[in-house]
Description:
This protein has 359 residues and is of the alpha+beta class.
Amino acid sequence: MSIFRLITLVFSFCLSDLRGETIQTFYGPLEVEEPVLLELIHSPAFERLQHIHQYGVAYYTKTHTEEYTRYAHSLGVFALLRTKNASLEEQISGLLHDVSHTAFSHVGDWVFAIENQEEDYQSAIHDTYLINSGIEKILNRHGFSGEQISPKRKEFTMLEQPLPNLCADRIDYNIQGAYFQKFITFEEAQKIFLDLSFQEGKWILKQHDLAAKLVSFSLFMTKNCWGSAANYITSKWLAETILQGIKIGIISWPEFQSGIDQDVWDRLSATQDPFIATRMHMLHFPDLYYRLVNPLKAQLFIPFKCRGIDPWINQDGKIIRLTSIYPELEEALQNVRKQSIEGWPVQMSFLENNLQENS
């Protein structure tokens, strides 16, 4: 290689580094110049999220097969924070908030027996995961600490807020999710993204009709995915399968905690272990093993977390709750909250009862 060519390549590399990079997100391209962000986005730990499905086991039981990953979600949260002028620390926090998810996302909550608790497993281990994955070393090289960008920081109110408020995390999984479920079009998703503003500690929307579609979607997903009896039962079955796989050496703890969905699923599917083979059949055909019934006939009741949202909106200069002008949404939200406390009335099949007794 000639000296001239070598100098040209070095100059091009340096110029590229100065200009940064275009990062593609659901909401459009973002120009990113900060070295810390670029190194984090291209780190193995973050890129692993491309292979972790947003809805966990539901992707494999064929109830939610959309190609929506923790990677796309994390970049979506980052895009919201960046375009709405969050601090660099909060942008980093949003980018990394889901990096500690195990394979199959929230199935980890069932594996470690903390399902339906206030803090999920990936949040509980987030700080430790940053260290073990090498992410904290990247942060340290650029003058940041794990504590400095922790999603648990109370100052990061753009990223996290209690229900039923909107927050960057909740906004993205409702917008992208609503798009995939055809509650909104891509154009409507972009309108919501542009319409959003953060003022005096609140995420606010002006387009009431689009806000109402997001509320309806959040209630739909609470009942049919996030809080459904199917999600609870199949997550429990998959957790039992994973624990058995670890026990007999099909997979290891590190492979579950830092691996990818498809790899773990394929290993479990290939084993001849009777317990695992039975559970995998149950996961493929869950409707054969349980059903929702009249509460008087239920063997168990499965409570769930209501993830319904109630956004702040701007109406004639006043900031109010959307449900204050949409009574039908207020009624629907209250009904789901009531159901979440009462729980889903479930009857397990005769076959499932026998399997439980013999396991």
